[in-house]
Every structure is written in structure tokens, then in C-alpha cells.
Amino acid sequence: MRAHGGGPADLEIVVPACNEAGRLPAGLALLGEKLAGLGVPARILVVDNASTDGTAGIVRDWRGPVPARLLHCALRGKGAAVRVGLLATGAPYTGFCDADMATDLAALDEALALLRAGHPVVVGSRRHPSSLVEGYAQPMRRLGAVTFNRLVRDLAGGIRDTQCGFKFFSGPLARAAAADLKTAGFAFDVELLMHCVRRGASVTAIPVVWRDQPGTTFSVRRHTSQCLLDVARIRTRAGRPVRDPRPALSPARNPPAQPAPLVLFKGTGAGPG
């Protein structure tokens, strides 16, 4: 068992967690076991997203097979939490997944292999022809996800599913893109991918096994208007010059990127996917 807080990691995975005391223990156990079996130095970064339950304590008490670091994000919103986590990484490869582990972690093998082969952005897609999706039973949520992804596909490298919570990157690229991220709410994935694409990165979609988990806070009725507003703002930013247009695609270790100010948009939870 590697000691907590050990040496440099080759892979760091961010887990945003807002009031996840009920689901996080099982999620950490699954993720820790999977990372231990990958054969590479790895670390988990759990971002406590203004939780009011025992989320932070679960991470502090974690004694799993890989180190887990606790970070804090006072601004509610999955995008805000992921941004804090990515900017705290320093590994050659990094990414994020949801605390409920709705995406089967078997996909990590392919994601890591593609990153090592030079693919700068690898994302899980529930709309990949080879994906297996179970329990995605809410018709309005499914329709809303499809419609949303059609609206933003051109911004995110052409992929058909921008909202699956399973995305991995070349570390320097992730940190550069996260530094420019301003969307705190559900639509943050679109902006994060947009910043990668604008730096010259291609986006590779891979099939996943995805099982719907109870407890999502996203509501089509309550959150659609905010998502559309966020997308409009993202499109406005898409027309502005990139602060550093050079592709940050090398997996070499580098210091954390300097962040741009985060716009305080409202939003929490897993998003319209």
C-alpha cells in the first residue's frame, strides 16, 4: 500500500463532491481499487464542493490503496469544483469522474492507453455505438440531453455526448483549459472542451458502460434556462482570442496554470447528461 501523500503521480483523478457522504465511500473504494490495479503511480483529488454533511471527513479518513487528497471549493457548482481540482494537479495525465461512479471504471484502461499514445483529450460517451447505458429512464432528461448536445457539439470537438462525467486529458492541456474556465454550473464541460479544442487538441470519444445512479440534482425543468444562458456566454467567449494559443499537449510535468477569474454562475450537480 502506498503511503498517503506519496511521491509524484503519473495520473491524478479529480472527484467533485457536494454532499456525497452517502455515495463517496463506495465510490472511493471502487476508484482506489481500479487505480491500484493500473500499475502506475496515481492519486485521487476529492474536491469538497461546499458540503454540509460528512464528505470532507470521509476523505480525511480514507486509507485506501492510493493516496486521496482533500481540496475545498466554497463556490457551489460542479464546474467550479472540477476547476479547483484540475488546477491543483501536476501529473502528466489527469481527468475527472463523478463520485457515484456511474461510468464503469473499466474504461480507464482505454483512456490511459489513448493518452499515452498521444491523444490529448479522451472522453466517455454514452452515445458511442458500443456503449451500454442502463437505467437512463427519464424521457425528458434523455430528450434534454440529446437536444443540449446538438446545440453545443460544434464547440466541443464534434462529440455527441459532452456531459458524461468521465473525461481525461494531457495534464498541461487540462490545467491551461481549466485556468480559462469561467462556467461554474452544469454547462462547464462544454467550455472546458472548447478551451482544449481552441488550443489545437482533438477530442476522442470512447465507449462506456454507464448506469444511472439515484441522487442526481439536475432537473430539466429547473435548470434548462441556466444551461442555455451559460451556453450563450460560452459562445461569446468562443469569439475571443486564446490567451496562449500554443497547444499545451505535452504530457511533461509543469507548474499549475494561472487561473482567470471565475464567473459566479449558479448551478450544482451532474449536469444535463
Automatic annotation (TrEMBL):
SUPFAM superfamilies per record: Nucleotide-diphospho-sugar transferases
Domain of life the protein comes from: Bacteria
Region ranges (Disordered): 240-273
Entries under InterPro entries matching the protein: Glyco_trans_2-like, Nucleotide-diphossugar_trans
Domain spans labelled Glycosyltransferase 2-like: 13-164
Pfam families: Glycos_transf_2
Protein name, per record: Glycosyltransferase family 2 protein
Species assigned in the record: Actinomadura vinacea
